[in-house]
Each structure stands twice: as structure tokens, then as C-alpha cells.
UniProtKB/TrEMBL annotation:
SUPFAM superfamilies: Putative DNA-binding domain (SSF46955). This is HTH merR-type domain-containing protein. It comes from Maridesulfovibrio salexigens (strain ATCC 14822 / DSM 2638 / NCIMB 8403 / VKM B-1763). Residues 82-140 form a coiled coil. It comes from the Bacteria. Keywords: Coiled coil. InterPro entries: DNA-bd_dom_put_sf. The keyword Coiled coil applies.
């Protein structure tokens, strides 16, 4: 911590409330939190400590969000006060209701963009596999027409799963592949992939998440004190801590819910979960498969990934 800036964790230590609570303060009163610099962790400029202490005390007095905002406007600098460069003071003022609508709309746009980035990355992965298979198919046809059945079946399977990724709006990814045969002729293939967004319900997300142990038994890990590690916690940690700057989107593949997560420069992670009942009769979310860039990982790698993510629990 410096004398001029504070992180979420440092503000948590100063106020005696959790990091999640500090983040909720910022979500409820974003116009009073001024971010300094770029990168992670986020840092807030001098005065954020006094602001959080004041918000905590006002909530302890059972004041509503609106009542607290009205008091903060008279005691602290806000984004609204920095809008004096517009033509008139009247035009620069935005009432609380309008600001909340703007913040909500901005959040929706950011979520939509994040889903779009992940969806496009997923489409590129599948189209690359199709391109590779088609090139092999054309080559096999010119060498041995009888040996193409296996490749044709692989292409059919890829096409059958190409509609599996769900996203908020219709997104079309198009790729044209041109293949030159031995006789000099060229053939072009054009592919389109589109889909639309769903997410698992809260009941599924709140289930304990488990994997298979080395002996094949269901293995869960502790989460917050007195509670099991849940799917909701795992999703949060993967998309916010394990993979920095990541976008995420859910889609269905048969009985499985699949979480696709990708950062701007990193690989595409796909985590498969299914609801199941353990021999003891407990309903759980079974983490049964992990793909990285469309390549399935073995059990040891899934176990290591699961434990590594769980070890980040204290950051929630």
C-alpha cells in the first residue's frame, strides 16, 4: 500500500470488511471511486479509505443506498463534480436514476462483448479443425479414394457440434479455405457457424463441485469455512483470478454444461460439468473434462487444475 493509492484488499484491511463487501461498495457507488493507472490489481486514489469507512458506517446505521449516496455527494468528490467542462452546469448534471441506468447499460455491453470474444474464439477453433480435416480429405481422395470414410466421419462430427456454443446474439463466423490438388485444380470451401445465450441456473451453480480421485472416487474440496467448494466459486476464480482479463460463456453439450474461458492472448479453456449423485446420495456438480485449445487433458492435469483454482479461494 502506498500513501496515495489503495487496492480492494488494502481497503478491506482498513475497514475490517471483506474484499467482496468493498467491491459491492464500488458497485453501488461507482461515481465516488477513482481508479489510478492501468493493470491489475486495480488501485484507487487517495481518499478511497475514508470513503469506504464512511460507507461502512452509514450502512451500519441501516441507511438505504439512496440516502447514503445523498450524504456522500455532500462529503466526497464524485464523477459528476468533474463534468464542469461541458457547455453548461445544468447539462453536466446527471441525476442518480440516470447514472444507475447508464452504469447498468455499460455493464450489459461489457458482458455482451466478453461473450462475443469467447464465442468467436470458439468458432475459430472449430473452423481450424474443419480446415485441417478437409485438406487431409482432399489429399486422401487423390491418393486413395477408399480411405476417406474415417475423415468424412470426423468432419460430420465437427459439423454436428458446431452449433453447441451459445451466446447472447446471433454471431456468424465465416472462413473460406482454398485447396490446390495435385492436378492443379483449386477448390474453395466456405463455412458459417452461428448460435444463441444460456447459463446454468443458480441451483446448479451452488452445488459442491467434485472430480474423480486417483482411485475413481468422488473428491470434493473445502471452500469457505464450514462450506464445500462450489461450482459458482470455481467459475468466479477461473474467470477472474486464474485467467486474467478472461471472457467466459456457457453452452450445452448433451448432459454437460460447458464453460468456455479465454483471455485476449491466452488459450481457450473448456470445463465440462454434469449434475450427478454420489454413492452417498449427495447431488453434486461433476467436473468431468478439461479441454485446452480443443485438446482434452488427462486426469492428473484436471486434478492439478482443480486444486490450483481451489487454492485461490481466499481471494473471494
Amino acid at each position: 500500500m502506498t500513501a496515495e493509492t489503495f487496492t480492494h484488499r488494502e481497503l478491506s484491511s482498513i475497514t475490517g470488511v471483506s474484499v467482496t463487501t468493498v467491491k459491492s461498495y464500488r458497485k453501488k457507488f461507482p461515481e465516488f471511486f477513482f481508479i489510478v493507472g492501468h493493470g491489475k490489481p486495480l488501485r484507487f486514489r487517495k481518499g478511497a479509505d475514508k470513503l469506504c469507512l464512511r460507507i461502512r458506517d452509514l450502512f451500519n446505521k441501516n441507511l438505504s443506498v439512496k440516502q447514503i449516496r445523498d450524504k456522500l455527494l455532500t462529503e466526497f468528490e464524485s464523477v459528476k463534480e468533474n463534468r464542469q467542462l461541458s457547455e453548461t452546469k445544468q447539462d453536466s448534471q446527471v441525476n442518480n436514476e440516470e447514472f444507475e441506468k447508464l452504469a447498468k447499460t455499460t455493464t450489459q455491453m461489457m458482458n455482451g462483448l466478453a461473450a462475443l470474444v469467447t464465442a468467436q474464439a470458439k468458432a475459430e477453433q472449430r473452423l481450424a479443425r474443419m480446415e485441417k480435416s478437409l485438406k487431409e480429405l482432399v489429399q486422401a481422395q487423390s491418393e486413395s479414394p477408399a480411405g476417406t470414410n474415417e475423415l468424412l466421419q470426423e468432419i460430420k462430427e465437427i459439423l454436428a457440434s458446431s452449433g453447441g456454443l451459445q451466446q447472447p446474439e446471433r454471431i456468424t463466423a465465416k472462413k473460406v479455405v482454398t485447396i490446390k490438388k495435385d492436378n492443379g485444380q483449386e477448390e474453395s470451401y466456405s463455412f458459417d457457424a452461428d448460435s444463441s445465450a444460456i447459463e446454468p441456473d443458480d441451483e446448479f451453480l451452488e452445488l459442491p463441485v467434485v472430480i474423480h480421485s486417483d482411485s475413481g472416487e468422488f473428491l470434493g474440496l473445502p471452500g469457505k469455512p464450514g462450506h464445500p467448494f462450489t461450482l459458482q466459486e470455481l467459475v468466479y476464480l477461473v474467470s477472474n483470478n486464474k485467467i486474467e482479463g478472461a471472457s467466459k460463456i456457457w453452452h450445452k453439450e448433451g448432459r454437460d454444461w460447458v464453460l468456455a474461458v479465454k483471455s485476449a492472448e491466452g488459450p481457450l479453456y473448456e470445463l465440462h460439468f454434469s449434475m450427478t449423485k454420489t454413492p452417498k446420495g449427495n447431488i453434486v456438480s461433476f467436473f468431468n473434462r478439461l479441454d485446452i485449445n480443443s485438446e482434452s487433458r488427462n486426469h492428473s492435469e484436471i486434478l492439478a487444475f482443480f486444486k490450483e483454482v481451489r487454492d485461490l479461494i481466499d481471494s473471494i
